[in-house]
Amino acid sequence: MSKVTVTQLDEQHYRVSGELTRNSISAERLLNKNSQSNHKNWYFDLSEVSRVDTAGLAWLIHSFAELKQQGIHLELQNIPEQLQKLMQLGQVTNLFE
User: Per residue in 11-47, pLDDT tens?
Assistant: First the structure.
């Protein structure tokens, strides 16, 4: 099991790596409450995500909702095929466009 890690690259860009599964994310928050940015668009690079399940997708959706409440739009980049399929099945692809 590889725990999920979120690395802030700059004020708008983050790299998500590891597994986005129910076993690896537990009660983790995707973003630190101390993350401050004046930018209204944030980008998550998912190229280093090795596995994802529905809990990982739900975690991303929850993070999207939290950011939206703060007036920030979240865009996913380099989405793994496994996550793309889950997003299509859950009909949530348009959330992150």
Answer: 899 999 999 998 887 655 655 544 556 778 999 999 9
| Helix, strand or coil, per DSSP, at residue 46 | strand
Phi, psi angles (nearest 5°) of residue 48: -105, 15
Question: Could you tell me which residues are beta bridge partners of residue 15?
Answer: 7, 45
Q: What is the pTM of this model?
A: 0.83
* Beta carbons within 10 angstroms of residue 4's beta carbon: 20
Burial of 33 (0-12, 13-18, 19+ CB in 10 A): exposed
Would strands 41-52 and 73-77 be described as parallel, antiparallel, or unpaired?
A: parallel
